[in-house]
């Protein structure tokens, strides 16, 4: 991929907003060393220009206009192409307060840098060929990872696990195209029919590989975005107690901080590596009763948003009209039915419950005694992975854009297969195969439009 056009040098704060031990200002571009040289005075007397790539110097940031010392700092030099952006990059590591960071950033802008756009450092890494588009998107997935499992998927994609499989598929499709075009170019050899038969076999193999990859998409999406989960049930059935049990201290809770990469705060509970995104957490905590105080319509709205419903019933009481109203929300949804208070004398008839559950998993638990919670956790893990290998062992499709492109490629392969079965000319088969090849290229960025690229990188933080 060609290098960036233009000669802009960009600068931004690369660390999170707020107070911290260390803050970093990142500068990238042909003027990065010169700009840093105007601001940084080494304690040893060395100049920034004298630094070799990946060396550091200790010193101070000075305002050239006033001679004022702004902060104590360490300067790190990374010469092109051995840097994140493949350009000259300088990082200024100073104290992590908002005032010194902003002062130093402003000084870099005064000296000729411009403020980086969201994701522009990673965009330059992509445009300069250091990362493909799938790897670049994995960077933001790493930043937003909610559990170790989601981190492993993102790191695997950054290392090229997904890209390697997609490139192998593109290469296979390209070989099919070459084989058919060779048959078209030499009609006197009468090999066109044989070539089509060979390609039909190759298409079947490519479809199988693509189907296997797409089978990871649902799990990958959940690991990336979280399993949207709602807890519903009648009054006093134990919803708040279950939520508190899930949120106990040994669980990891991850909160996205506003102003970094996202605009909203969401609460996630780590269940065996699966990030459960609890829907309407505040509402469930504030009321012990979704059905009575919010109403069945509100419960319906929550259910519509959910990937998973945890429906609580009371083992110590017969099935009530409220229970039936909630059970009737289950059709078409993924749900686990939890019969709580199993430590008390049972008055609930499970046979009646099973009339509504449609074969869904029913677990007996006691939230008060923390019985059955391990089984619930395992059930959620099994439901999400569906028998697939765990993250780190294979490539996972965890991005809606990627899964859409892969599904479109599979459709084009199906079209090519149908074209062969209909006995149509090889050039018609080639048209379908080229479209499949292009759809696969959209994943890695080889055949994607500039508007899509811009849209992807605007989701990043400034400074990444």
Automatic annotation (TrEMBL):
Keywords: Cytoplasm, GTP-binding, Hydrolase, Magnesium, Metal-binding, Nucleotide-binding, Potassium, tRNA processing. Residues 226-385 form the TrmE-type G domain. Pfam families: MMR_HSR1 (PF01926), MnmE_helical (PF12631), TrmE_N (PF10396). GO terms for molecular function: hydrolase activity. Its main location: cytoplasm. GTP binds at residues 236-241, 255-261, 280-283. Its EC number is 3.6.-.-. Binds 1 potassium ion per subunit. Mg(2+) binds at residues 240, 261. Belongs to the TRAFAC class TrmE-Era-EngA-EngB-Septin-like GTPase superfamily. TrmE GTPase family. This is tRNA modification GTPase MnmE. It comes from Sporomusa sphaeroides DSM 2875.
